[in-house]
Amino acid sequence: MRAPRILAAVACAALLLAAAAPAPGLPLQELPPQALKRGDCALVLWTRAPDARRIVMVLEGPPRARIRLSGRTLDLARVSAQGTSVAGQTARQVYEGEGLRLSLDLDLTGQRPTPGGVVIPDGALEFSDPSGWSVVAPVGGLIACEP
User: Fold this and answer.
1) How far apart are CA 85 and CA 21, in angstroms?
2) Are residues 147 and 37 in contact, defined by beta-carbon separation less than 8 angstroms?
3) Pairwise CA distance, residues 97 & 79, whole Å
4) Confidence at residue 24, expressed as pLDDT on a 0 to 100 scale
5) How many helices (H) and strands (E) does the chain have?
6) Which end of the chain is more exposed for a tag (fewer CB within 10 A), N or C?
7) How high is the pLDDT of residue 29?
8) SS3 for 28?
9) What pLDDT, in 10s, does the model give residues 44-63?
10) Domains of the chain: which residue ranges?
């Protein structure tokens, strides 16, 4: 019965994200479905757009953000985390690697427990590349664990 709870949480998060504005210019590609090991938890973020795309997965042990860029899946190491923790995730997180920088600013005060996880309805993602180009996009997400 684990799968129906997680699927219900994902469906709930997708509904919350579907009515927001698009994120033009964001070079991050959609991540394919990711499997968690038993006992692992992750924060998954979607663009807040009518065509919401799963663009970031924050994993534990070691803390890292998984993204897809130019057809490559990359793991960026966490370099800072600040703020109140909800289900192992903090409000402000920064990840770096390969000249890339990913900053997350999540509204954890608006989080809502749901079957199989915690919905994070609002947040901002800032992505910077080695040339100094950067873009900020609205995101929302879900924290879920594999029991």
Assistant:
1) 27
2) no
3) 10
4) 52
5) 1, 9
6) N
7) 94
8) coil
9) 999 998 888 999 999 988 99
10) 2-145
